[in-house]
């Protein structure tokens, strides 16, 4: 190809929106631009109150319906992005490859437009949405079947399917069969933003030791185990606090639970910008991560683990599977069963400093194993291969 490859990324979330998918996609675009590609991001306007300059060259934003938490979540919100996306992809200059980020509806739009315009597609499979849908009670069977069909169709038609962990890669292969298009690129955190060095959280630390849960609160994360455990911790350590910097479908229910049961020391705050999140994590006793057992998500590796370790802070993970094994085997903190008593024991051990890994170990492990920049470079290489 004599000219630079032309690439379009379709994603409902992008920086400065502070979510893991936005950081992952921005890192991919920057890696592609550094390789000489011409990349256009088709995305949404940021949530109300979120500001920041784009750090990539070409970003096209369009209004979108958001829920009361300012998230693009739910079928109406997805359609408010996907329907205009179809026209945006149809009317623009023909690219060499289209990259699609979940949800599956966006993947299907990109797949159909790719077929119509004879453009290869790349699907970024950071999650298995159809598994998540099947784990949620009350979702009608036809909806579950439709989500599965959309997702697997996008994967099968894609020139490349980028997966973020061996667990996700294995699950995708189980659903569509092993194929050369599956490319495990890994995942991680922006280690230039999340660092042990920088401003200290003086205001937070002056009020006593605290734990941090940052990110989405939903059924499959099961963060309520930390609230139940913390009620036990407060009986022994009344100075301890539990801080949630989050959003998600389960946040309001969790806040109601805390209020109804009168659990003191738990605070619910909004999501923070990455640099602010790293600052808060630096002063924390531990970052918190969890996966609800039995919902089919044991393969997941939450990015919140890497946010903490990159900031030099250990992790308490509650649950089974890949994340439990990673925290345990890499000595990243305390790997606990998904049980309030077991989690409380881990939280008390963290408060006492028992078997606490050093900040230096956590940082060096993250740089070597969970750098978002490294994952983005591998993803960019796969995208460019599809564009040839």
TrEMBL record:
Residues 27-188 form the Glycosyltransferase subfamily 4-like N-terminal domain. InterPro entries: Glyco_trans_4-like_N, Glycosyltransferase_grp1. Keywords: Glycosyltransferase, Transferase. It holds the Pfam family Glyco_trans_4_4. Gene3D superfamilies: Glycogen Phosphorylase B (3.40.50.2000). Signal peptide: none annotated. This is D-inositol 3-phosphate glycosyltransferase. The lineage of its organism: Bacteria, Bacillati, Actinomycetota, Actinomycetes, Micrococcales.
